[in-house]
Every structure is written in C-alpha cells, then in structure tokens.
Specification:
four-stranded antiparallel beta sheet; about 120 residues; alpha+beta; globular
Length: about 120
C-alpha cells in the first residue's frame, strides 16, 4: 500500500512514519536489532532534535539498552509520544508503547517524585 507523501506541519505522525519507513519492513518487523539498531537510530535522530529523544537504561542482562521517545506533534498539535525500548544484546524485537498526554504527565510526575525522595532534584 502506498502512503501519501508526508507533509511537514500537517501530520502529527510525520516523524513516526519516516522512522517506520527507515527501520521497519513492510510487514512491521525491524530491519536491525540490538546495538546495530541503537546506533542507527542515534544517527537518524540527529535530524529531528525537537522530535526524537534517546536515553539509556540498564536491562535485566546488565547491558545498556535504549529508550527512544518519538513525538507525534505538529506546530499546533501534540498527540503523544511513542516510546521504544531497545534491548542491546538479547536479540529481541524492540518493545513499543504510546504515551498520550495524560500518560506522559503521569510518568513525569512519578519520575519527579522519585527524584525528590532520593534527593536528585
């Protein structure tokens, strides 16, 4: 199925659609996994400094993994954020989930509370 051309400023999903075309097959599987995918996304994300954010986390295998945040926004609209958890070395597909504005607000509140209880503010 052909997609209509993404137009900046009109589609809150423009960056997400570009991400999917770059890193996924037509069946929705990722073209890369683990470290290779992490490095490729880090390079790609530099094109979208206000739409794509990456931070690290430690996984159950004591390996550094990435959390990638991709905004679904246009100049006048914010719909939410897709989050990908990319395990570095287990060979598994990344896990994707979506944060609507309320979910994002709640997550920020929880992380802020955790910082306060640990004196990290």
């Amino acid at each position: 199925m052909k997609r209509k051309k993404d137009v900046e400023g009109e589609d809150v999903h423009v960056v997400w659609h570009r991400f999917q075309r770059r890193f996924k097959t037509d069946t929705g599987k990722y073209k890369l996994k683990g470290w290779a995918l992490m490095k490729a996304i880090a390079k790609w994300a530099k094109r979208y400094p206000t739409d794509v954010f990456i931070t690290g986390c430690d996984d159950a295998f004591f390996a550094g993994s990435d959390l990638v945040f991709i905004e679904h926004q246009s100049p006048n609209t914010y719909m939410g954020t897709t989050v990908l958890y990319i395990p570095q070395c287990t060979g598994e597909e990344p896990i994707e989930f979506f944060l609507y504005p309320g979910h994002r607000k709640n997550l920020v509140e929880v992380l802020s509370k955790l910082n306060k209880t640990k004196g990290l503010t």
